[in-house]
Amino acid sequence: MPQLIDLSTFGEEEGKLTVFEKILPGDIKRAFYIYGVPSDQERAKHGHFTATNALVMVAGSCRVQVTHSGQEETFILNSPSQALILHPGDWHVMDEFTANAVLLVMSNQYYDKNDYFFEKP
To answer: In CATH, which superfamily holds the domain spanning 3-8+25-116?
Structure first.
């Protein structure tokens, strides 16, 4: 099942620094960001057999709906100091992106097209 975690964040008046440490099993092997998504567009609509991913909303917000073993959960991502951890088997769809949304995704595996499943469980 997915987990929404708080990231270590430091600073106040001089600005903030958020750290990505020990949030995924193993090393971060892949990172990318998603932006410029129209508000009526859906992204993802897939899950992974073995990869664990961390989703961090760097700017703006979006909704993430996650299904795992028939159970559904909905998350609103709107803080750069939180990460949504998606585990193997977590099917997800992202939508309701705000105009300024930037979503950072980090994975503990390199891209492998065979690690994806598209049918919602």
So the answer is: Jelly Rolls (2.60.120.10)
pTM: predicted TM-score of the whole model, two decimal places: 0.94
Enumerate the domain spans of the chain: 3-8+25-116
CA distance 55 to 83: 5
State the DSSP code for 71: E
- Between CA 73 and CA 104 the distance in angstroms is 20
The rounded distance, in Å, linking the Cα atoms of 34 and 38 is: 11
List the Cα angle 29/34/35 in 5-degree steps.
150
pLDDT digits (tens), the chain, 121 positions: 899 999 999 998 899 999 999 999 999 999 999 999 999 999 999 999 999 999 999 999 999 999 999 999 999 999 999 999 999 999 999 999 999 999 999 999 999 999 999 999 8
Q: Please provide the size of the chain in residues.
A: 121
